[in-house]
Design brief:
By secondary structure, the protein is α+β, with helices and mostly antiparallel strands. It has 13 helices and 10 strands. Strand 1 and strand 2 form a beta hairpin.
């Protein structure tokens, strides 16, 4: 959980290292000539006086110099501050949601089934099992899903396994009432607007489509320097929310695609375009 206290702690440690530069340098040099537990994990615990004269415990990277130890903390504090600002900009029901596209896809999947277990959901979503397990627990903690009681899972709706009931040999999850309310919120204009604020790089991807026309996951990932799997799931999540849609048609005309215009592009991938709603919301964010 990102907190202002963690950001302040990192910056205080960084300031302390720079203020007590010589003491840190001497402690590191001495530790490198002595045996001890610090060689096992490459870390050195020291007690320093902060710029305000108060003692503070700091764990140093044994292989780094004082400046690098401080800089790593400044950079991490900046990253956390940006994440905190992004989360604070998200309002309403979306705020507790894990900022992962697969989390959105999990909720939409559980909206179509009575219940499912992580390994099965990972297969359906083409996602990593470990990530799905972690997200299920996060969604459970914030109340968007709930565990099914032991016994059997009835198959009343479209399921991964088509039978009257399935013996519960796994930990099954289902959408909670709060999760259902969240999906209804995402159908609203305000919900979609908050997805653009909440999902990391979501707004970047939608703006790219709105500006440049149809694009596909692999090219987006390559040109923006993002992880392909993340972009692929992000496109799918944005489509479920209604911010992008799949491009229809066998070829893409040059006038439609400004990113890499050709006379005509034959479709070999799944291309996406921004929806009209997304275009309107982007203009609203710019105002």
């Amino acid at each position: 959980m990102v907190s202002q206290a963690e950001i302040d702690r990192l910056r205080l440690e960084a300031d302390t290292i720079m203020t007590r530069y010589e003491a840190v340098r001497e402690a590191l040099e001495t530790a490198r000539t002595e045996s001890g537990d610090h060689w096992e994990d490459g870390e050195l615990d020291v007690t320093l006086q902060t710029p305000h004269g108060e003692p503070i415990e700091i764990t140093l990277d044994l292989d780094a110099d004082p400046s690098s130890n401080a800089q790593a903390r400044y950079e991490r504090a900046s990253e956390l501050e940006a994440e905190l600002e992004r989360k604070q900009a998200v309002v309403g029901q979306l705020a507790p949601m894990p900022a992962e596209p697969v989390a959105y896809l999990l909720l939409y999947h559980l909206d179509t089934v009575e219940g499912n277990y992580p390994r099965s959901m990972a297969g359906h979503l083409d996602a990593e099992r470990g990530q799905v397990e972690e997200l299920c627990e996060e969604l459970l903690q914030v109340g968007f899903v709930e565990r099914l009681e032991s016994g059997t899972v009835k198959q009343r709706r479209a399921k991964a396994k088509q039978s009257d009931e399935v013996r519960q040999h796994h930990t099954y999850y289902r959408l909670s009432r709060e999760g259902d309310h969240l999906l209804r919120f995402l159908e609203e204009r305000e919900g979609k607007l908050n997805v653009l604020r909440h999902l990391p790089e979501g707004q970047t991807i939608v703006r790219r489509l709105a500006r440049g026309g149809p694009d596909y996951a692999r090219m987006t990932a390559n040109e923006l320097g993002m992880e392909f799997e993340y972009v692929r799931h992000c496109y799918r999540a944005l489509r479920r929310v209604g911010l992008v849609t799949e491009y229809e048609g066998g070829t893409i005309k040059a006038s439609e695609r400004k990113l890499k215009p050709k006379d005509e592009t034959h479709r070999k991938h799944t291309y996406y375009v921004a929806t009209d709603v997304a275009d309107q919301l982007l203009r609203e964010l710019d105002d």
